[in-house]
Amino acid sequence: MASSSQPPAKKPKLSALDNLISALNRLGVDDSPKLSPFPVPDTDELNLPFGLGASVTIRPGIGLIGNDEEEEAYYQEWLATHDQADDQDDDDDEEELGDNDNITLGQDLFTLEDGEVVEATRYLGDEWVQHIRALYAVGPIPVPPNMAVTPHDYQLKAAAQAHWLCESRFKGMLLGDSMGVGKTLAAILAMYMVKDQPGFSMVVAPKTLCHQWVQSIESAFQNGHGLTTHLFEGSAKLTAHDLLALGVDVVVVSYDQVDAAQRDLRTFPDRLDMYLNDKTGFVRKPKRALAPLHSPFWRLIDMPIKRLVLDEAQVINKRSGVRHQAVKALFFKAVIQLSGTFAHNKWHDFSGYVDFLSGHPFLTHRAFMKAFSTYDYSGKTERPDLAKTRLLQRFLQAFTIARPVDIVNLKKCPRARSFFKLESPAISKEIVDWINKFNMGGDDEAVKLQQETDTGIDSSWMGLLIKAQLASIHPLLAKEREEMDHQDEGTDEDASHWHDDGADWKPEERSKWLKRVEDTEDLYHGSKRLRHFIEVYQEIRTFLPGRKIVVFSQFLKFLDIIAEAMKRDGIQPLRYDGSVEMRRRPNVQRDFKAADPAIPLLLTAGAGGFGLNITCASVVIQTEIWWNSNNEAQAVSRAWRQGQTQEVLYVQLFAEDSAIDKMMLRVQNRKNTVNSDIMQAIVRHPGEKPDIRELRLIPHLPVIKLEESERGIGNREH
């Protein structure tokens, strides 16, 4: 008989990260798990990290042709994920058909610029497919001489494809490589390819990234062998002739500066007319608008911007936006649009990018929506069904290049949601209930509920949501918001004031606020979120002592509270937000890189949420849920990108009993399902062939939306 005295099996050795997760799970209340990997199973919602989803809305029971497995999968996912409630912010973008729109159910027709009407499948047929295949067959350019960095093959190929598309009918392209893959260098190479042509190229970027662009362009090549730059920061004396005389290869400018320059030119006739017709003598003679970026001088000498590079193009994707219009008014030959999240908020964000391109019939947002939306019986737009999704994918494939993040062989990014319970969740639930009843019952019900709850809140739905979120974060923020409501009755500061960059705060306001925080004896009172954040931070420091930590919040004032709480514990965090002058921000990055790992970097979503490179950090903590999961992905990608040598731990704090946190997740998920599926056929690995999917004209039968009283009508007695 064999001996049973076997040595006990060795327990698997746990990593520091495993031990950390175990420790974090012990935090909080009750016996529920406190740290869960994404997605978190839930009976009401599907949590999709980083916008990764795989379903779009189609009509149940309609459009399932034959035994097509893909379409059947679509239907099953529709059943699993469809939510009848539309996003609040979709209302402004809904299109309704007028009497003269002539949409015929069961047909997909495109109206060309000359008025010709063609079938969509014919327009996007064989010739279109040949163009897509030719785009994918474009080979990489040779590595230019005297480069100070070594580009990847996929960056060389992207530069070649960008050049090919800029010379094509579209006069531009969309480069949608995942965040951290290296779109900047690909764009620099594309600008280098036209270096010897007359004129200059231009990079337009968020103001926080302009200095970084100058540095990236100048450091890509050895001294004297690359592209020369000029950072345009606005000047009352600089003319278009002066700008040309600089003789630089690339002008770098912010979206704000482009808008300001175009505004001066646009408003000058009115200001001059006001001066000429003034009878009082008080109106000053306006200065002549030089507007060197938009000057007619460029058209007069026929010298367009060679390559217009739009970085983080998602920030100007709304056609009617003033910055979008200001950029479009520039005189340019071809445009390269960069974004790691083209489907940033809604599926029809693509309309804004298409507006900068040539060679297509969708000259208005309305034309785009008519082509790719599905309509219900009343003429109201719906999310694209399968047929429309395939049309949109085919259309975008002709000028869009996008590669996934795994092409750079990054280490893993474990992502987890750390749960806790609020001490007083009733406030946020009360406000969310108010909003829900407002949507369902109209103004009368809303007024009634407002009287019942006596919340004292304004009528702006976004103001209500922000107030609910602030109440779930810290009582000081909720109190501050109430005071602001009473001081600015009828105004809506909302997202621009609270989801900051914070640069527009008046010094006296900020000093008063910081004094209030310093004078608060117990910062933890009433804020389980702050307490839980500190606990999570301490556990990370215990189990991963050598890791640098970055902390993201949408709210500058919550970072102020966190900074004060840490200061009382002997830790002085570094700051990267609107309270830090633009010229000092590169110094903050250098200081953080050299600092002890115990010193965290606190960033607002507005100031540090995109474009920043902080690969010296390998832990990212997000203090609250954000409305848009793509913004969350942008933030995490500040650390999880090229140059990162460690796994990046991403921890997101989530109040499991907070009505507003749950509501924000539902909004995220509804947006993710459609956007992710559109990109599914577009994102390809280098060397992969294009995913050309069959176009099918599926009859667009109307969706019948029953009133509450009509549901279950089949069970009525006759």
Topology record:
Layout: H1 16-25, E1 35-37, H2 69-81, E2 109-111, E3 117-119, H3 120-123, H4 126-137, H5 153-166, E4 172-175, H6 183-192, E5 201-205, H7 210-219, E6 229-232, H8 240-245, E7 250-254, H9 255-276, H10 297-300, E8 308-310, H11 322-328, E9 335-338, H12 350-354, H13 365-372, E10 374-375, E11 381-382, H14 386-397, E12 400-401, E13 415-420, H15 426-453, H16 461-473, H17 475-487, H18 494-498, H19 507-519, H20 528-543, E14 549-553, H21 556-568, E15 574-576, H22 585-594, E16 601-604, H23 605-608, E17 619-622, H24 629-636, E18 649-655, H25 659-680
Parallel strand pairs: 4-9, 4-12, 5-7, 5-8, 6-7, 8-9, 13-18, 14-16, 14-17, 15-16, 17-18
Antiparallel strand pairs: 1-13, 2-3, 10-11
Helix pairs in contact: 1-20, 5-6, 9-11, 15-16, 16-17, 19-21
Domain Helicase ATP-binding: 164-360
GO cellular component, one term: nucleus
Domain Helicase C-terminal: 529-684
